[in-house]
Amino acid sequence: MSRWKKYLGRSLYQLDAGLDLVRYRLSERFSNNDIVAFPYISYGNQERLLIKGRVLRARSIQPATKDSSFWLNLKNAYKRFDSDEVPYAKVLAHFHEQETTITADDEGFFETWLELQTQLDSKHELIQTVDLDLLDLKKAQKQTRFQGIVMVPDASAQFGIISDLDDTVLQTGAQNILSMLRKVLFGNAYTRLPFDGVAEFYQALHADKNPIFYVSSSPWNLYDVLLEFFDIQDIPVGPLMLRDWGISATEFIPSGHKKHKLELITSILDTYPNLPFILIGDSGQEDPEIYRETVRRYPERILAIYIRDVSADAARDQEIRELAKVIRETGCELLLIPDTANAFEHAKAKGWIS
Asked: Which of 239, 260, 215, 211 is nearest to 42 (CA)?
């Protein structure tokens, strides 16, 4: 069965890639829209920086407001998901005196680690900027340079925070597919709502020095909506590690939620080997199990785990309580909490926030 699934995945990928290439050739010839190197906020340390983003043909997405109509939100959502990527585009990244050329993949995504020839000073700024130049453009356009942001915590950081998004920060209703689709397709950054107290709690944890990473299985197509949501709700921004929902050469459908998040969390913890972390998630999917595995892989690195209880299933709650007992034996603590206030009080009692 798995052999047929792999064969089907490869066949669909080849078809999808071929159609994308035809569409790109047509847009290259007939479209007047500029090409943009859309950088994603990423992270790094004193020795290396992660540079990532996507090369797309610009789409005229209209700014959202509190009063945006049902149809405007749907139109904008369609444009986001019907992304016109530029396959195999070349991007020249500049940081201080260093340069490196990155080639995007067939979906327009580019990513590389830049090993620094000169390490950053111990008192460097939290936010580092990287200039990105588009190369080999077929048509002249006004803007060819874009600026990426890389978050690099300094020695003043006490700990890092890794947080889920859906049903942890955002009221998404991810367990109800129809409810989630309605919010994604017919809403915007103003209509998306956070849970009570999230902004204050995350601001207190961040304290302008402790890095926050958002790890989610939401698609990259929602990146701009999420950034706008953070700005509107005054929630500290950090690297958003999302997911490509497209067909790949090795997968018919995206890889499992658990595998995806564990890989991202592992990369983050390996980048900061001397930094402890607080993990925040919810009971709706696999966050407790993912964080249990994280504790197993990185003993003594996890200060606490906060799991928002969004499940009405008593059996699920009992499963998480059993996991909490196992985790407690390692010296870490998992708390199944009804709201943000409980996490706030616990962190305050531990001295992690004032």
From this structure: 239
Residue 159's alpha-carbon distances to 90, 268, 329, in angstroms, are: 36, 12, 22
Query: How many CB atoms within 10 Å of residue 131?
Result: 15
Rounded to whole angstroms, the Cα distance separating 255 from 245 reads 9
Rounded Cα distance, 86 and 107, in Å: 7
Q: Which amino acid is at 220?
A: W
Cβ-based burial of 300 (10 A; exposed 0-12, middle 13-18, buried ≥19):
exposed
Cα–Cα distance measured from residue 87 to residue 65, given in angstroms and rounded to the nearest whole number: 32
Class of domain 31-151: mainly beta
The helix/strand count (H/E) of the chain reads as: 9, 14
User: What's the pLDDT at 59?
Assistant: 82
Determine the 3-state secondary structure of 174 from DSSP: coil
In the 8-state DSSP scheme, what is residue 95?
A: E
Q: Read off the pLDDT of residues 206-227 as tens digits, 9 standing for 90 and up.
A: 999 999 999 998 899 999 999 9
Q: What is the pTM of this model?
A: 0.86
Residue 176, pLDDT score: 61
Return the CATH superfamily for domain 160-350.
HAD superfamily/HAD-like (3.40.50.1000)
Q: pLDDT confidence of 24, banded at 50, 70, 90?
A: very low
Residue 338: phi and psi, rounded to 5, are -80, -25
Q: Give me the torsion for CA of 8, 11, 12, 15, rounded to 10°.
A: -170
- For residue 286, CA distances in Å to 216, 258, 268 come to 11, 7, 19
What pLDDT band is residue 7 in, cutting at 50, 70 and 90? very low
